[in-house]
Amino acid sequence: MTSSKAVISSAETVLRWRVEAICEHFGGVRAAGRALKINYAYLSRLKNGEKSNPTPRVLRKLGLQKVVTYAPIRTVLDFKGELLEMRP
Fold first, then answer.
1. Can you give the pTM of this predicted structure?
2. Distance between CA 44 and CA 29 in Å, rounded?
3. Long-range contacts of 43-52 (CB under 8 A, 24+ apart)
4. Fold for the domain defined by 4-85
5. Distance (Å, rounded) from C-alpha 57 to C-alpha 30?
6. Which residues of the chain are modeled with pLDDT < 70?
7. Alpha-carbon distance 79 to 20, whole Å?
């Protein structure tokens, strides 16, 4: 089962990878910012992981979309056989 931290980390990795690829394609953060009409400083923060929740507008410009998923909560049985919720 995938933990929520792993999912968040994976999403941030995809975001950072995409921004890095776009910057490489355009020849740098400033050039990418100009081409995509995104502030280059903000683009740099996304690339470095300082920011991680861009708006739908920015995501579209980066060729990405946000996808929300749901996962079951892990559970265990206590000593009496009753179901307990485990919290991360």
1. 0.69
2. 6
3. 43/19, 46/15, 46/16, 46/19, 47/16, 47/19, 47/20, 47/23, 48/16, 49/12, 49/16, 52/11, 52/12, 52/15
4. 434 Repressor (Amino-terminal Domain) (1.10.260)
5. 19
6. 1-9, 72-88
7. 50
Tokens 């990795």 belong to: 13
Determine the Cα–Cα distance for residues 27 and 50; give it in Å rounded to an integer. 21
pLDDT for res 1: 45
5 phi and psi, to 5 degrees? -65, -40
- The answer to whether the CB of 8 falls within 8 A of the CB of 16 is no
Is residue 75 within 8 Å of 83, Cβ to Cβ? Answer: yes
Two tokens, residue 37:
């009409």
- Sorted by where each begins, the domain ranges of the chain are 4-85
